[in-house]
Write a structure and sequence with these properties.
Layout (H helix, E strand, L loop, with lengths): L4 E3 L7 E3 L27 H12 L11 H4 L46 H10 L8 H9 L2 H10 L9 H12 L8 H6 L8 H11 L18 E3 L11 H13 L15 H4 L7 E3 L21 H9 L19 H12 L29
Antiparallel strand pairs: 1-2, 3-4
Helix pairs in contact: 1-5, 1-6, 3-6, 8-12, 11-12
Bound molecules: heme C (2 copies).
């Protein structure tokens, strides 16, 4: 069989092969400098400034104790190094907290991809009873009681009579998230032509990634995701049996219309949205950029290290009947496994954007914001 090859990356020369039919296989590549932005929410400096304050402001939560940064922490790769995400007080989360770094390049949000844009996404945790537990109308009124916010919303949304709305709160946060991006990883540099940016082991890992190990079948495109859903058979995490984790999962199931949630003892991903058997255990392919910064791994944080993740794929994924057919035992040698991990580490930016917690504006008549809410 004749195999054609394409030279995809200019000078750096990552060869990606095409099938005998000449059909181009999916590939990986460098990220552009700027993520796309929607026409109705252009990224402006004042909107980004406002979005930054809102991102860090725990007063967006019911009891003033939880902000976006609580669960997507700039000090922890913009994710959280815990098996399960933090949650609103007295609750436990049932999913691991993903990073918001470079999330602006994705077209599906959440592990189950239930929303598509950052604007839609940002509203959700605010209202979620186990995340920020806040009511939108009350939040709008609360922010109106903060003079600096009144000023900033007016500037960021100059054509609106009453700019403090949940939609604009979400727009400002989304604009801020579009600035939490980076594309200066060794891999990006290599792809742009600096052949010394990755070492030999990393290059070997990249070749395995697009070749023998078949990772590129799902982790492709500049953000290493096909923006699709797959059943990989990730094993259950012990934590999923904790009563309060189960309580949150049961709550989510009841909200989705399931009548006997207690019969389901683990997170089944898209199945919770569609009720479709083939979606049992189906999750979005996550980005792999900066993945070394954000252990543990998978929707339920079941793997502590990248080595464990690679071992999982080496075995051909988990043991579930509806597993994606792309996953097969790989028979990787120890050195090949090491190379794959080295390549995943080459996806870490040199300058990961860091934003210091800003000083938050106080309520009218007060001089400062009390730590951790009021
Ligand atoms: C209490 C913890 C918590 C808080 C607070 C929180 N999040 Fe999240 N966030 C999560 C978890 C957990 C997920 C994944 C949930 C899922 O897939 O169902 C997530 C998912 C996301 C995603 C999708 C990422 C992806 O790759 O799919 C974005 C973007 C995001 N959050 C941004 C925000 C913003 C903005 C705020 C503040 C308005 C916020 N989050 C508040 C825990 C939190
Ligand atoms: C069939 C599609 C598919 C293939 C092939 C695949 N993955 Fe994945 N990958 C996924 C999905 C889906 C998830 C999320 C699964 C979950 O959370 O339950 C994931 C998760 C991951 C994660 C965890 C990311 C995080 O932030 O938690 C890593 C790391 C990863 N894959 C690396 C690889 C490597 C390395 C290969 C090749 C050996 C590979 N993947 C092959 C679909 C795939």
């Amino acid at each position: 069989m004749v195999r054609k090859t394409f030279l995809l990356s200019g000078i750096a020369g990552l060869m990606i092969s095409a099938g005998a039919d000449g059909a181009k296989k999916p590939s990986i590549g460098p990220l552009p400098d700027k993520p796309p932005e929607p026409k109705d929410n252009p990224t402006t400096p004042v909107k980004v400034e406002l979005g930054k304050l809102l991102y860090f402001d725990p007063r967006l939560s019911g009891d003033g104790s939880v902000s976006c940064a609580t669960c997507h922490d700039p000090n922890q790769g913009w994710a959280k190094k815990r098996v399960m995400s933090p949650a609103y007080p007295e609750n436990k989360h049932f999913r691991h907290s993903p990073t918001v770094l470079n999330v602006a390049f994705n077209t599906l949000m959440f592990w189950d991809g239930r929303v598509k844009t950052l604007e839609e996404q940002a509203e959700k945790p605010i209202a979620s009873p186990f995340e920020m537990n806040m009511n939108y109308d009350l939040l709008e009124e609360r922010l109106k009681a903060i003079p600096e916010y009144r000023k900033l919303f007016k500037k960021a949304f100059p054509n609106e009579r009453e700019p403090i709305t949940i939609k604009n709160i979400a727009k400002a946060i989304a604009a801020f998230e579009r600035t939490i991006v980076c594309n200066d990883s060794p891999f990006d540099k290599y792809m742009r032509g600096d052949s010394n940016a990755m070492d030999e082991l990393q290059i070997k890992g990249m070749k395995l990634f697009v070749g023998k190990a078949g990772c590129v079948q799902c982790h492709n495109g500049p953000n290493f995701t096909d923006n699709k859903f797959h059943v990989t058979g990730v094993p259950k995490s012990r934590v999923e049996d904790q009563p309060l984790v189960a309580a949150t999962r049961n709550f989510v199931l009841r909200q989705a219309g399931f009548r006997n949630p207690e019969r389901i003892d683990r997170d089944l991903g898209r199945f919770f949205l569609t009720g479709n058997k083939k979606d049992k255990g189906s999750f979005k392919t996550p980005t792999l950029r900066n993945v070394a910064l954000t252990p543990p791994y998978m929707h339920n944080g079941v793997f502590k290290t990248l080595e464990e993740v690679v071992d999982f794929y080496d075995k051909g994924g988990g043991k579930v009947p509806n597993k994606d057919r792309r996953l097969k035992p790989l028979n990787l040698t120890d050195e090949e496994k090491e190379a794959l991990v080295a390549f995943l580490e080459a996806l870490t930016c040199e300058n990961v954007p860091y934003v210091e917690e800003p000083e938050l504006p106080p309520y009218e008549g007060e001089t400062k914001v009390k730590k951790g809410g009021r």
